[in-house]
Design brief:
The protein is α+β, with helices and mostly antiparallel strands. Helix content is 36%, strand content 30%. It folds into two domains: 2-62; 77-165, Sandwich (Immunoglobulin-like). The protein is globular. The structure holds copper (II) ion.
């Protein structure tokens, strides 16, 4: 048994040695990859600037975002939302408090759900496939919000509504 442990320990030391060796080798190509990415970003112009902004936005929201839920929390008001092509159906007036938007995609395309207003902006990390249901939890304060499908394209036009919370 002791022999076996010593053997394992020896093998692990050897493995770690090899690992740090290979990591040192890996550091060089890593650096040149980010340099190359930097070059590509600079060359790509306006479109890349937009993409960069999107990345920044996502990073800012990351602290606010949890893994997409599939069932509403017990202490949340349940509010049903139906999405389909060019359609977003939900109540236009709600009370303040913790709210679980149970969002169901009844359409044939992927859709998503975002709610913005009163300094808050929350959306699903991933959109919803046809017939998928997911829950977005939002702590609603009194005020005016905009609820929308953030996807771009003809089939998402008109997927937006104003929500009053009071
Ligand atoms: Cu949509």
């Amino acid at each position: 048994m002791l022999q076996c442990k010593q053997l394992l320990f020896g093998t692990m030391n050897e493995f770690q040695g090899r690992l740090s060796g290979s990591m040192a080798i890996a550091a060089a190509p890593d650096k040149s990859l980010s340099e190359r990415t930097g070059d590509t970003l600079q060359k790509a112009g306006e479109k890349t600037k937009e993409a960069g902004r999107a990345v920044v936005d996502t990073t800012k929201k990351a602290a606010n975002t949890v893994v997409d839920a599939v069932t509403p929390d017990a202490d949340a008001h349940r509010v049903d939302v139906t999405l389909a092509e060019n359609r977003l159906e939900m109540p236009k007036k709600l009370s303040p408090g913790k709210t679980g938007f149970v969002v169901h995609n009844t359409g044939k395309e992927r859709h998503s759900f975002e709610i913005q207003g009163e300094g808050m902006d929350k959306k699903f990390m991933m959109g919803l496939a046809p017939d998928e249901t997911k829950v977005l939890h939002v702590d609603l304060k009194t005020g005016t919000y905009k609820a929308l499908c953030p996807e771009k394209g003809k089939e998402h036009e008109g997927m937006s509504t104003t929500l009053m919370v009071k």
